[in-house]
Amino acid sequence: MPDVIHKYPLAIDGHAGVPMPRRRRILCVQVQAGVPCVWAVVDPDSPMVPVAFAVVGTGHAVPEDAGPYLGTVHLYGGSLVLHVFGGE
Fold first, then answer.
1. Closest CA to 8 of 48, 45, 46, 47
2. Cα separation, 12 vs 31, whole angstroms
3. Cβ neighbours of residue 27 closer than 8 Å, sequence gap 6 or more
4. Residue 88 confidence (pLDDT)
5. By 3-state DSSP, what share of the chain in percent is helix, strand and coil, each rounded to 5?
6. Which of 53, 25, 24 is nearest to 37 (CA)?
7. Regarding beta strands 35-42 and 24-32, do their DSSP bridges make them parallel or antiparallel, or are they unpaired?
8. 48-80 exposure pattern, b = at least 16 Cβ within 10 A, e = fewer
9. Which one of 41, 46, 54, 64 is most buried, by most CB atoms within 10 A?
């Protein structure tokens, strides 16, 4: 089956474990309907694995194991700014 683009909602409470196919390529992080989401190109036939994301508010410490920076999202009219790391 060809690769497809899937969306994965993220929790906003720090670390988020998200089941995703092992073979994936993260495209972006954005907000949809008030929920931060990761979009990725995935192989839907690839086995699912837990993927760690760190969601860090401005002014908060970034965990040492946060992974690569993926993007910044603005919630509640910009009063909450979160920075997303991980996806490896």
1. 48
2. 11
3. 5, 39, 40, 41
4. 86
5. 5, 60, 35
6. 53
7. antiparallel
8. eeebbbbbbeeeeeeeeebeeebeebeeeeeee
9. 54
In angstroms, the CA 41 to CA 74 distance is 23
- Against a cut of 0.85, is the pTM above it? yes
User: What confidence tens digit (pLDDT) does each residue in 36-51 have?
Assistant: 999 999 999 999 999 9
Categorise residue 44: left if φ over 0, alpha if ψ from -120 to 50, beta otherwise. Answer: alpha
82: tokens are 């979160």
Strand order across the 4-9 sheet: 4-9, 35-42, 24-32
10: which 2 tokens?
A: 């993220």
**Alpha carbon 72 to chain centroid, angstroms:** 10
Tokens 């495209």 label which residue? 27
